[in-house]
Structures are given as C-alpha cells and as structure tokens.
Input
Amino acid sequence: MSCKKDETKVVAGNGTAPALTSTALTTQLLKEENAAVNFGVFNWNASTFGFEGSVVSYTIQVDISGNSFKAPKEISAGTLLTKTVTVADINSISNQLKLTNNVAGKIDIRVKATISDKHPAAYSNALTYTITPYQIIIDYPSLYVPGAYQGWAPATASRISSVADDKSYEGYIYFPDAVNEFKITSAPNWDNIIYGTSAAGKIVAGSGDNLKITGAGYYQLKANTNALTYSALKTTWAVMGAATGNVETPMTYDTGTKVWTVTKALSAGTLKFRANGTDVLNYGSNATADGTLVEGGTAIPVTAGTYKITFNVSIPGNYVYSIVLQ
Output
C-alpha cells in the first residue's frame, strides 16, 4: 500500500494599499530653532497580503514632488501604523534631496508596506507639501574678529573659520567705516589668545596694535596662526557666464541680510560668481549644483528665464547660493 498526502500551499498575494493621512500643514517654513518640533503625525491603516501570520513593516518615503519616488529617502516605522516626524527629520531629508535652502520647494510623502524584500510592496496615496528648508550649519574651528564695527564684543563678533582645521582661517566681513580697527581672538571673549599686529600683513599673539582696514566695504579676511599672517581683500560681486551673454552683471549687498542679490533675465547656459571684475576669485558649485558654493568650482547650469540670484558667504565655511525662477 502507498499513502499520498495532499498539501495546501498558501502564497501571499498583492498587498492592499494603506490609506495615508497626516496632521502636517501643507505649507511649512522650517526653522533650525524648531528642529525638535513635530512636522506632523502620519497615520495609515493596516495593509494585508492575504497570508495569515505575515508581519507587515511600514516605511515613510519622501521624494521631490513629481519625481514618482524614483529615489526616495526613507524613515522606518516598523510595524506601527503611525509615525511622528520632526522638523529636523524633514529638513535633513530635504538637504539629502538637494532642495535649495531658504527657498520653497515641494516634496511628496507616501507609505510603503512590505512583508519581505522578495515580495512586491504595497504603497499608499501620496501627500504633497511645500516646505522651505534651512541650511544645516557646520561649526568649523574659528577665530573671532571683534572691532569698532560691532562694539568690540568678541561674543557677538563675526568669525573666520578653518574648514580643513589647519590653522588657516577665512571669512567675509562687512566693515562700514573709512578706517576700521579690530583684533582677532581665539575664543568669543578677551580671556584667551588675542592677536594684534606688528607689521603689515603680520599678526602677533598676546600683544600688538589693532589691525586696520582702510575703506568701507565687504572684505575677505584671512589669517594663519602658524605663519602669523593675515590679509584683507575688498570685494564686490557679480555673476557672469554664457547665461548672462558673457557680460558681467553686478550684484547688490544688503547689510541687513548679509547677502548679495540680483534679479536677472538669463539665457540657457552656465554662470559663476566672481569678485572685482576678474576670475582670480570666483565661486561655482559642486557637481550636483545643489546650492553649495565652491571656490573655483563647476559653472552652474540654468535654463532660460528671469531669476532672483543670491550669493551668501556670511557664515564661514558654509557658503551657499540660490537661483530662483521669478
């Protein structure tokens, strides 16, 4: 005699799409001081795959609006049906997605439901948000520049920073007076190393006269505490490239916002920011042209249109630009 056992094999089916809702406001200006505040609470119903005992995991996906989630950034929610997302979460993702800081942009958010990486996922409806992300500031080693221009207060003085942490410091400062006197300190107080000067282009630790700059303007200030040298270059800024017809277009500096701006009709092409009418000191961007300024970097591509262009080197080591269609 022989015995035959019939087996029933249960195969998971296609998952049901979760229905996504949220408390998040559809338009939000993100601020660093609100980083820990809730951007919104996201809720969805359970997805089923027709397989009893299967464990469904959920992930919130975020991508640039209209990109069809081709390259989303993700926030895991585990097996929960709710997830609270903070301003810091969304801002970090916005920076990863290369949204321009301080400029409104749109993102899409949806939920992905899965039971394994070998089975097709189920996806919720997408919600669209208009957000204005903020720049995440990197705090590089810095020196402070107290002077008459700001009341000789190191705690509130402009800084110059060493991105490579190699004792070579750089920053941009607006000096408003015909003659501007200042010192350089190693901390935001008068209790540590104070640098003065003993000769043109030289700094000395612990003593020396006030450093001086003659003429109001926007200066690139450099100092090297190994070589004990400094330099100050007065700058005015403009945009130039194929997008401007290779004609230099001057920018205007705002002492309140500490930003250079110009509104300009551009042709399809590229542009750079350059100082003092030459290419000796110029900024482009990195390869992704994501709003980050790089000295001598890649020319920035644009399509034809009228744009508001900003150039911001007010935070040392964190130089950014924006080109926004008007």
User: Anything to note?
Assistant: Residues 142-235 form a domain with the Immunoglobulin-like fold (CATH 2.60.40.10).
